[in-house]
Amino acid sequence: MNKQIVLTEKAPKPVGPYSQAIKAGGWIYLSGQIPIDPATNQLVLGTIEEQTELVLTNSKRVLEAAGATLRHVVKVSLFIANMDDFPKINGVYSRFFPSEPPARSTVQVARLPKEVGIEVEMVAFNPEP
User: Fold this and answer.
1) H or E stretch including 61?
2) How confident is the model over 26-81, as pLDDT tens digits?
3) Which H helix or E strand runs over 120?
4) Of 2, 8, 33, 121, which residue is 20 to 30 A from 48 by alpha carbon distance?
């Protein structure tokens, strides 16, 4: 099985030894995204809704660079700093997945990188294996 690294300037540059995504076999594995503006590579610590919007937009851009869309996503993992934000996150999330949403897990964690409120990772099937 071949492994292909996915990298796009339309999403934040990796800030460590990882790839934005990996295509392997029939799958695309996206690394966790936190709210970083890809144009400036600066953290955006607005409301949880703004953070969620940016994280999902950046994830969408990585998927597009891999030749996929949000419709190809089969699993999403949400890591959130405050479970009280869950309804607000769901409000934004539902706009990105209005029908046939993927499987999902949500976990409140003690701490996220750079003190953000949300990190999201995804797995999608590769429409062009």
Assistant:
1) helix 48-65
2) 999 999 999 999 999 999 999 999 999 999 999 999 999 999 999 999 999 999 99
3) strand 118-125
4) 8
Alpha-carbon distance 96 to 39, whole Å? 21
Digit-coded pLDDT (tens) for 14-29? 988 999 999 998 999 9
Cα(116)–Cα(46) distance, integer angstroms: 9
Distances (CA, A) of 18 to 6, 30, 93, 98: 11, 10, 25, 30
Three-state DSSP string of 4-53: EEECCCCCCCCCCCCCCEEEECCEEEEEEECCEECCCCEECCCCHHHHHH
Distance CA 88, CA 90 (A): 5
- What is the C-alpha separation between 52 and 118, in angstroms, rounded? 7
Dig out the tokens for 46 from the structure. Answer: 């607005």
Domains of the chain, earliest start first: 3-125 (3.30.1330.40)
